[in-house]
Amino acid sequence: MAVLRFKALELVDHRKPVDVPQTSQKISEYYGKNVFGLEAMRTTMSGEYFKKLVTSIKHGTKVDRAVADAVAAAMKTWALSKGATHYTHWFQPLTGATAEKHDSFFDLNADGQAIENFKGSALVQQEPDASSFPNGGIRNTFEARGYTAWDPTSPAFIMDSYGAKTLCIPTVFVAYTGEALDYKTPLLKTLSFLDRAAVEVCQYFDKDVTRVTATLGIEQEYFLVDKALFDARPDLIMTGRTLFGHAPAKGQQLEDHYFGSIPPRVHAFMLDFEQEALKLGIPLRTRHNEVAPNQFECAPTFEDANLAVDHNQLLMDLMNKVAERHNFKALLHEKPFKGVNGSGKHNNWAISTDTGVNLLSPGKRPKENLQFLAFFASTIMAVYKHADLLRASIASANNDHRLGANEAPPAIMSVFIGSQLDAVLNELENNSQIAIDKGDNLYLKLGIDKIPEILLDNTDRNRTSPFAFTGNKFEFRAVGSSANSSSAMTILNAIVADQLIDFKQKVDVLIDKGKKKEVAIVEIIREYIKASKAIRFEGNGYSQEWEDEAASRGLSNVRTTPQALDFLVSSTSEDLFIRNSIFSKVELHARHEILLEEYTKKIQIESRVLGDLANNHVIPTAIAYQNKLIHNIKGLRELGLDQGEYTEETIESIKFISKHVNIIKRNVEEMIEARKVANKIEDARERAINYCDVVRPYFDVIRYSVDKLELMVDDEDWPLVKYREMLFRH
């Protein structure tokens, strides 16, 4: 292993930036060139069918068979002109990754002649094996049927992989009996739910609003490690994170990496990656160095939430493919290195009307500001009522390493809105009942006129909040870097939509009692402000004081995934999902079981890799080095030089190595026995909790001793690539 390490380091020293041919001087000239979007449809379809398709997409109605056939014919012509030979339904099963099964356009006609064929039926539906994907017991192994069905709201695209071009068609994935087996299906349901609920509230302010869309901008953080160094770390290969590794003398403490000059090899990767992403219609606009060494970020502009999620899933896949061309590995794990910042995926969420209004942005008129406050207060109230469900939405074995650390939001869900907006809400809360006479200016009395001025430069500066208002959007920062954002966005859309329904019902009751509409709206806003005050926090989310205060406010602080996932199937969550037709009880409990099993499997794999590395790499290396020291002592004694201070220190080193080798051996053996016990537990929840509470604690004990040995053993002998080499060699 030591030989492999030094060969890898030698390779890194000779790496040069890969030459990246510039596609064009103007991004606008090639943006979306590999996407079958509206413009491509317009030029390849008849006007009648194109209009029908656009109407179906806009109103969420079913695309009829004739239109599907027309789209398929146009899509085939376009794809073939791009050099595609195969097509696939591209979907997002509950593995967290994307999936695809390629079929050729090639077919034989009745005369046995070769033709290219692609019908509307192939566009609309395919039948992959449902039982081979996580299903939580929904599908039996012998009942393998499942269906992928075309999502016309997300455009098809051409994926070029080493010269092989494939037409990818975004789809949902459902069981034969109709249950959702993917992330996209419930997301689409909640987007429709939010649309209906928000439009009803918008009618108080603007009768022209007929549609509301959730928009999303997803910031993606990641690490880059040279491929040779990655290949020399079995833990990175198998788990995505380093299970061992002592912190280097210099990490991120000087804060000199953040926004620093981008290293040449990394810059070449970014250019290549961005060009490929832009061709696929992913609107990347930002790139920069992140806080940790060898950590970076890319961010797109805002898009429709469904498309933004699709693009982020595609982006992660693309990132890995392009990284290979540059002899890098992109690490998307939430905490690949201990002691330096982990990686998140900040989800910037807003809601906009078809009249061009961002409902989370104050306007120039008091009426617009009242509308803003209605949606703003409803969102905060929704987060307050369902904070535990939001925590469940971002729970994973990977994210447990990150949440609550000194660079990520804590596991406590809270909302940051900034001191100035906080003052506005406090003023609204404390206002007594306002009597409205003819000609009175309600907005002036409430101070609503001041909101645009207050928000002029009220951007968020609190990086410790998991859910922060940042001027015209909410930023959900607790989402993990490797996660599918659908999980978090499905729940956020659902809880806000449900709260908006509550808002509308309560306002209507007051109006029916004779209240003026604006007064009724303000009263419910005030009610929400008072009720949800406990979730608002403007201070340091990392502090012990906040943990104590959060507990006194009744806010949960659930640090581990198995316990956090309980919130997914609580009576409150079941009521929310079932009442609004987002998940059936069967689907909800299936997802709960799938997530528990995923957690167990990840900890199980990490445990096995950790034991293998400790027993077969670390301990033999430590003993071999110890034997060198023993041989040295023997030599000194033969020369009669065994009484000095140097000899005593060497003997202490030998004892030190023995101590930590014994600790590692004992704890690895105990961990293996604990794993055997956990594996016999049949209940998925109990098994996951056992892995969390009994098996996982051995990791830190074993790691401590391994990392101590890393400092002791001769650098020339140590088998694993070190942190300083992975984080500072590029």
UniProtKB/TrEMBL annotation:
It comes from the Bacteria. GO terms for biological process: glutamine biosynthetic process. Signal peptide: none annotated. Coiled coil: none annotated. Pfam families: Gln-synt_C (PF00120), Gln-synt_C-ter (PF18318), GSIII_N (PF12437). InterPro entries: Gln-synt_C (IPR040577), Gln_synt_N (IPR008147), Gln_synth/guanido_kin_cat_dom (IPR014746), Gln_synth_cat_dom (IPR008146), GS_Type-3 (IPR052725), GSIII_N (IPR022147). Residues 85-178 form the GS beta-grasp domain. GO terms for molecular function: glutamine synthetase activity. Belongs to the glutamine synthetase family. This is Glutamine synthetase type III. It comes from Adhaeribacter arboris. The lineage of its organism: Bacteria, Pseudomonadati, Bacteroidota, Cytophagia, Cytophagales.
